[in-house]
Amino acid sequence: MWEQDSSTHAPQMSFRAAWSLVLRKGGLGIRGIHSPGSTAHGKEKMSPYTNYHAQRSYPMPDEPFCAELNAEQQALKEKEKGSWTQLSQAEKVALYRLQFHQSFAEMNRRSNEWKTIMGCVFFFFGFTGLMIWWQRVFVFPKKPITLTDEWKAQQLQRILDMKGNPVQGLASRWDYERKEWKK
């Protein structure tokens, strides 16, 4: 588990061994790792975008969009403290983008997400149709012989020959002398 660094010749523990040692000693523990207000490795913020949540109903987020600034952005923030008439339009937009992710116009802009959703819906309709067709062709058995037109005609003829239900049934509507249905 110990690795030798060629430049310092000091023993260094591998990450996995150090992590298991921290967990065994109870340094962070499962609660410390998964507490809702912190990151996985301690109390420091995740960079550069943390806890940023802005929407139309809540336009002013608690934290700026970009939390950690580079040298150019820090210089721009210092210039912001002076007169705004000295700032160019591009610098004002850059300052806005440091604080907010989107403008109201960008938040209110329609998205094309409905196309994706409808595409997925139609894809699954088509896939379901193919599955039903495949089951009817390859899985379900053939139709029973009792559902064929010839069988139904023979069955009707048998009922008429037996004169079944002659008062109100099929036999009452059949003319036995002319061999046709009564009009």
Automatic annotation (TrEMBL):
Pathway connected to this protein: Energy metabolism; oxidative phosphorylation
Alphabetized InterPro entries for the sequence: Cyt_c_oxidase_su4 (IPR013288), Cyt_c_oxidase_su4_fam (IPR004203), Cyt_c_oxidase_su4_sf (IPR036639)
Subcellular location: Mitochondrion inner membrane
Keyword Membrane on entry: yes
A Pfam family the protein falls into: COX4
UniProt KW keywords: Membrane, Mitochondrion, Mitochondrion inner membrane, Transmembrane, Transmembrane helix
Main subcellular localisation: mitochondrion
Keyword Membrane: yes
Membrane protein topology class: Single-pass membrane protein
Transmembrane regions listed in the UniProt entry: 116-134
Similarity field: Belongs to the cytochrome c oxidase IV family.
Function of the protein: Component of the cytochrome c oxidase, the last enzyme in the mitochondrial electron transport chain which drives oxidative phosphorylation.
Subunit structure, interactors included: Component of the cytochrome c oxidase (complex IV, CIV), a multisubunit enzyme composed of 14 subunits.
The protein's name in its UniProt record: Cytochrome c oxidase subunit 4
Organism: Vicugna pacos
